[in-house]
């Protein structure tokens, strides 16, 4: 039977349903929660041939009418104004009323784009997430952040729009390219470090999950969603000055800078950049005397075991330290040009810190 998590947000509570084959229950699960019986589906051209027929059939069985299907090209470039406009126009052409549901079937790109369209059309249509990448199942489909990219940077235009339902079908992960599966694992390892006991589970079961073990993957998704949704319930709109949603940025100050230097589009996947960032954040914590000296080695060893890059020097490309530092200062989460890091005392004991000196970061990145 699938696992269920209830996310009790004050204004809109919803369920996350996780397991093998839950996509086949999409229609039935939606029928229990939504008033309307019309929906549009948003997906990408790689995912649609693989998994859209299952969703379509399940909706028909539950009495839903699919009023439109919109496919975007796979890849980050589809999180743009052009696709957003196309989608909004398509949804309105499907005679949208406030009961028309928008279903995202795909990775984080489809989820962020479809979610933003759902947030915008008629100031909010019911939104259902059917994440098909590990990254989307453990991270992007939960939490209500939606949006697109602009020439000024990633995710700079968007809205908070919580889904009414998340259906994470772990069977869809079997068609995912292995490199994408591993990239998603970086966020699982991050959740492990934030949570504590989950980190030790990652160390022992991560390699098995990366070989595609369905039970290990389902557990990783379940525990990740549990951790992330608890953080989101605590700080839905990222208003807390300390802790809260900002903690989910562990490894991301470094990760975003590396990703931005590479340009978005393949050379370094988000999860790969985050993996290196997790190694660096732990190393920084050890040098500041916050965590044990063995912790950075443990983190890097785990990342190596699951097939993720674990240090900058392991990458083919060389990076300019000054450019990375400039990127970190300009990060949208930085305050007044001070780099903001999430540091770790031990797995399960993390905090945000803006007082790290630039000299320290420069030394770390120069190795
Ligand atoms: P993605 O959506 O681009 O998917 C990665 C690739 O896998 C694509 O080529 C896609 O076509 C393919 N794919 C997806 N599912 C598949 C399947 N089951 N079988 C075969 N191929 C499949 O990338 P992603 O890593 O899922 O998401 C990255 C995006 O998520 C970024 O834009 C990032 O900003 C966003 N994100 C958002 C949040 C949030 O809170 N909203 C959090 C983290 C990341
Ligand atoms: Zn991330």
Automatic annotation (TrEMBL):
Cofactor: Co(2+); Zn(2+); Mg(2+); NAD(+)
Cofactor binding, per record: Binds 1 divalent metal cation per subunit. Can use either Co(2+) or Zn(2+). Binds 1 Mg(2+) ion per subunit.
Top-rank taxon, per record: Bacteria
Binding site for Zn(2+): 187, 252, 270
Record field: catalytic activity: shikimate + ATP = 3-phosphoshikimate + ADP + H(+); 7-phospho-2-dehydro-3-deoxy-D-arabino-heptonate = 3-dehydroquinate + phosphate
Annotated compartments: Cytoplasm
First-listed, main subcellular location of the protein, grouped into a coarse class: cytoplasm
EC number: 2.7.1.71, 4.2.3.4
Residues binding NAD(+), per UniProt: 108-112, 132-133, 145, 154, 172-175
UniProt KW Cytoplasm keyword: yes
Domain 3-dehydroquinate synthase C-terminal residues, every copy: 184-334
One of the record's GO molecular function terms: 3-dehydroquinate synthase activity
Function (record text): Catalyzes the conversion of 3-deoxy-D-arabino-heptulosonate 7-phosphate (DAHP) to dehydroquinate (DHQ).
Family: Belongs to the sugar phosphate cyclases superfamily. Dehydroquinate synthase family.
Assembly notes: Monomer.
The protein's name in its UniProt record: Multifunctional fusion protein
This protein's encoding gene: aroB
Entire-sequence positions represented here: 196 to 562 of 567
